[in-house]
Amino acid sequence: MPPIISVSNLSKTYGSGFKALDNINLEIRRGEIFALLGPNGAGKTTLISIICGIANLSRGSVTVGGYDINKDYRGARSLIGLVPQELHTDAFESVWATVSFSRGLFGKPKNPAHIEKVLKDLSLWDKKDAKIVTLSGGMKRRVMIAKALSHEPQILFLDEPTAGVDVELRKGMWEVMRTLQASGVTIILTTHYIEEAEEMADRIGVINKGEIVLVEDKAGLMQKLGKKQLKLHLQSKIDAIPAALAPYNLELSDQGRQLIYNYDTQGERTGITSLLGDLRDAGIRFNDLDTSQSSLEDIFVSLVRAP
53: part of which helix (H) or strand (E)? Predict the structure, then answer.
């Protein structure tokens, strides 16, 4: 199946000479949730703006559902719903009116049943007659999603969708995203909340300094780049790691009461068995041990810090 979005050799250079994006190549699969991660200024919003036809590219091409974003802007844009990072809506309109108006902007005929469904799916139905100005920040963000869904798009872009939203509402919005995906909507989200990407995404892309660092299935990324850590809680404090244990690159922590061993989950052997034997031979005893695996946040930080 061809990708629903294809970005080829995309670059964006501003008049000042600043290169915001450099030779971006990216394909988004139909029906997936794709998370785009990157530090502030990495180029996330610029990339989304170009795909959505809000900003112009300097070089390369973008197709959305087979439509070239430059040659057939209307065809491409009709497939896209965009929820920007900033909240922009008429504060004194009702929820119903502002969502219905957004549908009309795309030339779609009135469809009260669809607007009703969108508002109910987003838990906004009881607020349909409320003025936007009276809503909480979380509800206003839901209205922005409702506006983006008003014209029945196949693709939904969410730029920092849960920024400023409390934990309970954030998890509620995750459920909304899953429901949308189940209905066939492709979702691309940028987020600062690593847990959001870890919870929601099928695939993850990391962008840094205008370049795509990697694109990987979430499970594959965790397996490929995730490291496991073994912590040994020692019976007695030690002042230094014996020379015989140097090959294991152990770390001494907790003021000499804990040894930490990092190992590769992809390796044929973890080395744990031989480590435990060598610890015994060195006269080092431990009371307990536990293991942990790198989180997506650990992996992300290591990627964006890499030279």
Answer: none
Residue of 51, 39, 43, 40 whose CA lies nearest to 13: 43
3-state secondary structure of 61: strand
The tens place of each residue's pLDDT in the chain, 307 residues long, gives: 889 999 999 999 998 999 999 999 999 999 999 999 888 788 888 999 999 999 999 999 999 999 999 999 999 999 999 988 776 777 889 999 999 999 998 889 999 999 999 999 888 999 999 999 999 877 888 899 899 999 999 999 998 877 666 677 777 778 888 888 998 999 999 876 777 777 889 998 888 889 998 888 877 766 665 567 788 899 889 988 988 888 888 889 888 899 888 776 555 567 788 888 888 888 898 888 877 665 555 666 666 665 5
Q: In what order do the strands lie in the sheet with 67-68?
A: 19-28, 5-13, 59-64, 67-68
Question: How many Å apart are CA 85 and CA 250, to the nearest integer?
Answer: 44
The fold adopted by the segment(s) 227-305 is Alpha-Beta Plaits (3.30.70)
Q: Where are the domains of the chain?
A: 5-222, 227-305
Question: pTM for this one?
Answer: 0.73
Buried residues in 125-137 as b, exposed as e (16+ CB within 10 A): eebbeeebeebee
**216 with 27: CB under 8 angstroms?**
no
CATH architecture of the domain with residue range 5-222: 3-Layer(aba) Sandwich (3.40)
Of how many residues is the chain composed?
Answer: 307
Phi, psi of 228 (to 5 degrees): -100, 150
Q: Which residue has 């061993």 as its token pair? A: 261
Question: What 3-state class would DSSP assign to 25?
Answer: strand
